[in-house]
């Protein structure tokens, strides 16, 4: 791993700079009889934003902890930024844990500076950096406030800033959006995209599909400790045929007879949800409707979103999980 | 290792910045000042001059009682005169006192002996103007800016019975029961004799035949039938302040005995001489150099100083390990620990905490000692110079380095224990279960402290020495008593081994416990994961 670092600085070898920031190889974590993560393999390209999606208890946090070398995997191996343990490159990694908490008695800037210093930033740089970050993300007035006096959302922002103050190359955010109001969620998205622009690789886990859809280049979907999907957002969406909702003076039975309709059911609004047969397009469906002389009152067509993909891939378990 | 110090720095600042810490630091000198000043103030200000009535129907013993009260006052004047001199003498007086030479009883003992042998020694002070001339005599040896001497107030002052209550004619013959019933409302504080609402403290009645009411020693005394009503009666509601009744009764006895000597034809002078004869009795310490074996005040201080150290050590250790416990639990329940773990190794976190909190403990002790010295300097007076001499004796005794050493050892052992507890619990409430046991363990050195000091090389001391959890306290306690080298070094080695083991096990438990959520693990479970992590090594 040390050779990697030295190679990086050598011009001749610069072509071999690894494009993979993180590589997981058949990662397994067992707690007694319980398997938290089962045979997970993954490659995170450098400079990408990777979303870890999955229902509660799927194994996202355990995976993240293994990546950080906070817990040791039962088997399998990890390569992060060219090192076999995150501890060897810990000053280049930023981490925001799922459960948020800070030292209550410390001032906002001091908390940020403290964690930056632990990550190797000299103390002379840490304070200005903390103040600059607080200013940039709208907390400039609270720099000298004690953490306990901040609102929950502000505290969480401070913690996010604390995890990225040392300008990490690799950032891992566990549920960064939970507990934030919509405007702060937007700030959070801003933080992530700023980091990405500065060249950092980012992994974040979330329940909220819309965030993942908006920000992620690639996603990993885990359910029941297993990898269910790994790829780009578009690849995920392509897993499902487009969704078509129609309304008109006809019955579901009439629609099912059409060649491009695989299945059809009535939703709560009385609209008909159509599952298009694979290989067919909505345009085909529409022309078939005209050919069959079905009177269409409305024809809605949309690409499936990640939420649909999520439900489709994770199925019943996810429904139960999202209710939790 | 750099991270350890960053963590230590935060830990230190976090704890040293709390109000509790500063209250703790400030309370010490405040309590110290209070302990010195309050009794003085109470004596001088809070207790008013107490009025008493003396009704002497015997026409004989009244003067004796009066003399006793006056002598008591004279002793008080003498005491404050000597304090005044010590406080204001040129160049100080107590500086010259050598604790190494002073007998172990101290100054107060000397004064008490002196007065007991010769109760009349201070009678000359009661002459009018005697106090002024005494001060005038001192003047030469005093500092120029010495304040004027203020004689202490009389603790007791005699008042006459107002004739409106008992007429002068009745006074000499009235039955004591009748006198008391007339004065009872005044004694109970329902009525006042004087306009300044000073309560009547006591009524002393000496009935006519009181002088004859003598209890005899020997076989004759056993068959005597005496009525308390015929003897001297002391009536007072306040049962706690016995100084007046004691002074009177001992003066009366003295008077009675003198009379008896005269009756029996014994020369009073000879009796007094005989009474002040004494056997020469000196304590020696066989461990001291030849010619210097006499047990001095300094020796006594050195003997008992470890007790103070043990107590201070106990408070300091208990305070700081509690901080450690609370901080660890806070980080656990906040999940800050996860961020820490992604930035530093468990060992760095643990050692950082240990160093930081040790610093807090050190600050606390330095603060205590500094404030003690500060208080002593500020209050510069006789007791204070005394105390600073005491400090000197302690600092020369070689106990201080031992104290530092044993404090560090004790701290490391207990902090290891408490860190492990903290890492296993998610809430303070959960930790209470463990704390019960830990507190019992920690109470033992405190409870046995005095017994160990009394018999520093006895069985109890030796047994406790070999229990590493108690070694620091017990060996500190024994330090002045020259414990056998085997005990000293053997227990030190055992203690060091324990510390290393303790910290190692704690760091294991810390690693395992720190990411745990929910209930603390059962003992079996803990043991299993410990051995598992051993195998993984």
Envelope shape of chain B? elongated
Number of separate helices of chain A: 12
Alpha-carbon distance between the two ends of chain A: 42 Å
Radius of gyration of chain A (CA) equals 24 Å
The end-to-end distance of chain B, rounded to whole angstroms, is 21 Å
**Are there runs of chain B of 5+ residues with pLDDT below 50, and where?**
none
The residue fraction in helices of chain B comes out at: 55-70%
Mean pLDDT of chain A: 83
Radius of gyration from the alpha-carbon trace of chain B, in angstroms: 33 Å
Please list the strands of the largest sheet of chain A in the order they lie side by side: 5-6-7-3-8-9
Q: Taking all residues together, what is the mean pLDDT of chain B?
A: 79
SSE run of chain B: HHEHHHEHHEHEHHHHHHHHHHHH
Strand order of the largest sheet of chain B: 2-1-3-4
Helix content of chain A: 25-40%
The counted number of beta strands of chain B is: 4
What's the order of the H and E elements of chain A?
HEEEHEEHHHEHEHEEHEHEEHEHH
Number of strands of chain A: 13
Uncertain regions of chain A: pLDDT < 50 for 5+ in a row?
1-16, 320-324
Report on this model:
The complex is a heterodimer of chains A (324) and B (537). Chain A has twelve helices and 13 strands. Chain A is α/β, with parallel strands linked by helices. A six-stranded mixed β-sheet of chain A has the order 5-6-7-3-8-9, with helices on both faces. The longest helix of chain A has 16 residues, at 182-197. Residues 1-16 and 320-324 of chain A have low confidence and may be disordered. Chain B is mainly α and 537 residues long. Helices cover 64% and strands 4% of the residues of chain B. Chain B has helices at residues 2-16, 19-46, 61-88, 107-117, 130-138, 168-171, 176-187, 219-222, 243-264, 268-275, 297-334, 336-343, 346-378, 382-396, 399-424, 428-454, 459-465, 471-478, 485-514, 523-535, and strands at 50-56, 156-159, 200-206, 233-236. Chain B has a four-stranded mixed β-sheet with strand order 2-1-3-4, with helices on both faces. In chain B, helix 11 (297-334) runs antiparallel to helix 18 and helix 16 runs parallel beside helix 18 (471-478). Chain B is elongated and about 100 Å long. Chain B starts with a helix and ends with a helix.
């Amino acid at each position: 791993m040390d050779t990697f670092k030295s190679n990086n600085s050598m011009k001749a070898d610069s072509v071999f700079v690894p494009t993979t920031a993180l590589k997981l190889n058949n990662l397994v974590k067992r707690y007694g009889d319980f398997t938290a993560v089962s045979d997970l393999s993954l490659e995170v390209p450098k400079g990408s934003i990777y979303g870890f999606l999955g229902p509660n208890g799927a194994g996202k946090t355990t995976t993240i902890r293994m990546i950080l070398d906070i817990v040791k995997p039962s088997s399998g191996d990890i390569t992060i930024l060219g090192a076999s343990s995150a501890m060897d490159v810990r000053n280049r990694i930023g981490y925001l844990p799922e459960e948020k908490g800070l030292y209550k008695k410390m001032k906002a800037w001091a908390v940020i500076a403290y964690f930056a210093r632990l990550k190797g930033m000299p103390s002379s740089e840490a304070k200005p950096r903390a103040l600059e970050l607080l200013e940039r993300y709208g907390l400039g007035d609270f720099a000298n406030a004690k953490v306990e006096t901040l609102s929950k959302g502000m505290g969480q922002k401070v913690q996010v800033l604390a995890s990225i103050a040392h300008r990490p190359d690799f950032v891992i955010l566990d549920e960064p959006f939970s507990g934030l109001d919509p405007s702060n969620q937007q700030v959070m998205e801003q933080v992530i995209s700023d980091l990405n622009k500065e060249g950092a690789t980012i992994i974040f886990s979330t329940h909220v599909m819309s965030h993942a859809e908006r920000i992620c280049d690639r996603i990993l979907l885990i359910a029941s400790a297993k990898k269910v999907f790994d790829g780009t957002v578009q690849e995920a969406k392509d897993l499902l045929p487009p969704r078509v909702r129609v309304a008109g003076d006809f019955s579901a039975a009439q629609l099912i007879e059409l060649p491009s309709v695989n299945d059809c059911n009535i939703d709560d609004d009385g609209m008909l949800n159509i599952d298009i047969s694979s290989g067919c397009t909505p345009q085909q469906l529409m022309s078939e409707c005209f050919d069959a002389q079905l009177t269409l009152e409305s024809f809605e067509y949309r690409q499936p979103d990640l939420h649909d993909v999520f439900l489709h891939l994770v199925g019943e378990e996810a429904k139960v999980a999202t209710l939790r | 290792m750099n991270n350890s110090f960053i963590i230590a720095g935060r830990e230190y600042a976090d704890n040293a910045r709390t109000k509790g810490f500063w209250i703790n630091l400030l309370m010490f000198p405040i309590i110290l000042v209070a302990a010195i000043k309050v009794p003085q103030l109470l004596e001088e200000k809070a207790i008013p001059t107490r009025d008493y009535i003396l009704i002497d129907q015997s026409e004989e013993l009244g003067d004796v009682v009066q003399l006793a009260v006056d002598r008591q006052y004279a002793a008080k004047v003498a005491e404050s005169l000597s304090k005044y001199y010590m406080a204001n003498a040129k160049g100080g007086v107590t500086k010259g006192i050598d604790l190494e030479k002073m007998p172990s009883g101290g100054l107060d003992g000397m004064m008490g002996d002196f007065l007991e042998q010769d109760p009349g020694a201070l009678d000359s002070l009661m002459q009018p103007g005697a106090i002024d001339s005494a001060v005038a005599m001192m003047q030469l040896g005093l500092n120029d800016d010495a304040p004027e001497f203020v004689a202490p107030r009389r603790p007791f002052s005699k008042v006459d019975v107002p004739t409106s209550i008992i007429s002068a004619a009745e006074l000499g013959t009235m039955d004591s029961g009748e006198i008391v019933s007339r004065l009872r409302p005044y004694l109970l504080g329902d009525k006042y004799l004087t306009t300044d609402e000073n309560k009547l403290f006591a009524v002393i009645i000496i009935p006519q035949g009181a002088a004859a009411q003598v209890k005899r020693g020997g076989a004759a005394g056993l068959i005597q039938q005496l009525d308390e009503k015929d003897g001297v009666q002391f009536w007072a509601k306040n049962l706690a302040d016995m100084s007046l009744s004691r002074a009177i009764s001992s003066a009366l006895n003295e008077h009675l005995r003198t009379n008896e000597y005269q009756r029996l034809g014994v020369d009073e002078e000879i009796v007094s001489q005989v009474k002040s004869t004494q056997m020469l009795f000196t304590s020696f310490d066989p461990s001291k150099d030849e010619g210097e074996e006499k047990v001095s005040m300094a020796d006594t201080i050195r003997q008992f100083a470890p007790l103070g150290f043990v107590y201070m050590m106990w408070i300091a250790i208990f305070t700081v390990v509690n901080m450690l416990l609370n901080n660890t639990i806070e980080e656990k329940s906040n999940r800050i620990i996860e961020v820490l773990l992604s930035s530093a190794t468990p060992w760095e976190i643990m050692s950082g905490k240990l160093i930081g909190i040790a610093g807090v403990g050190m600050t606390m002790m330095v603060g205590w000692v500094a404030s003690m010295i500060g208080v002593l300097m500020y209050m510069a007076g006789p007791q204070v110079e005394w105390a600073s001499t005491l400090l000197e004796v302690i600092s020369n005794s070689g106990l201080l380095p031992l104290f530092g050493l044993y404090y560090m050892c004790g701290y490391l052992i207990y902090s290891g224990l408490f860190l492990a507890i903290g890492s296993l619990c998610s809430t303070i409430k959960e930790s209470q279960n463990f704390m019960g046991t830990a507190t019992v363990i920690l109470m033992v050195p405190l409870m046995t402290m005095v017994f160990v000091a009394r018999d520093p090389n006895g069985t109890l001391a030796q047994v406790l020495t070999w229990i590493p959890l108690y070694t620091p306290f017990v060996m500190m306690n024994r330090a002045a008593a020259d414990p056998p080298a085997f005990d000293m070094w053997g227990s030190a080695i055992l203690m060091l081994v324990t510390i290393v083991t303790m910290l190692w096990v704690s760091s294991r438990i810390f690693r395992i416990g720190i990411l745990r959520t929910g209930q603390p693990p059962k003992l079996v479970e803990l043991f299993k994961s410990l051995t598992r992590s051993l195998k993984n090594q």
